[in-house]
Amino acid sequence: MSNRRLQGESVVNCLLALVAVIAGGVIVRREVGSFSARHASANLEYVAEWRQKSKIGHLTGSPNAVIQVVVLGDYQCPACRRLEGLLDAMRSRFRDTLAVTHLQFPLAYHPYAVAAATAAECAAAQNLFEPMHRRLFELQDSLGKRSFSSIASDVGVRDQEQFTSCMERSDTLPQIRNALRWGQALKIRGTPTVLVNGRMIPGLPNDQALEMELRRALTVSSP
């Protein structure tokens, strides 16, 4: 086995250890309970530091959009993939008033979640986060059957040497570590976890509940 491969495995193992430690302090499940319109409440928890912490992630849309959605997700989480479809539908309805920031929160028991999160961050280093993010969800059911370098080629990553090196270097992964620690501080119970202008939704929202919260964000100023 090459030194490069051993180094890459060591990096992933270190991250897996961190994920496992965090999982020990936070009960995580494949997906949290659904959040419907009938559960919608003016008393959703407000996370004061959401603007600062969202800088860890990757923004799609304008930083000045009225509605800012922050998602902590896992590429092997089925509910996270369903949320992506909901968010696409909401973008078509709310257009430039909506922006979404994605943060990595790979769950300990998903065998390829850490590697997939790392691949997304390494694609981001070549300004290709969004296409890699979407491709990983498209391939969710087959992650682990293809190399991440091959998936990177799918989305247009040209510098494969840089991508491979990035996948192997622990100093390229603070975004994942920091997002995991923030999730731990928030005591989130699973993925996806969604914040709308700082209001944390307890579970995967359905279409009606998500639209209701986004429309509320249009009319209520964030603290």
Describe this protein's structure.
This protein is an alpha+beta fold and 223 residues long. The chain is built from nine helices and five strands; from the N terminus they run ααββαβαααααββα. The protein has helices at residues 3-25, 50-54, 78-94, 113-124, 129-138, 148-154, 160-168, 174-186, 207-219; strands at 58-60, 67-73, 98-104, 193-196, 199-201. A five-stranded mixed beta sheet has the order 1-3-2-4-5, with helices on both faces. The longest helix is centred in the first third of the chain and has 23 residues, at 3-25.
**Number of discrete helical segments:** 9
Q: Specify the overall morphology.
A: globular
Q: What percent of residues are in strands?
A: 5-15%
What is the gyration radius calculated from CA atoms?
17 Å
Mean pLDDT comes to: 86
Coarse structural class: alpha+beta
Residue ranges: pLDDT <50 for 5 or more in a row?
1-11, 23-30
Number of strands: 5
Secondary-structure element order, as H and E? HHEEHEHHHHHEEH
Give the N-terminus to C-terminus distance in angstroms: 54 Å
Oligomeric organization of the protein chains? single chain
Proportion of residues in helical segments: 40-55%
- Sheet with the most strands: spatial strand order: 1-3-2-4-5
Instruction: Report on the biggest sheet.
Output: 5 strands, mixed
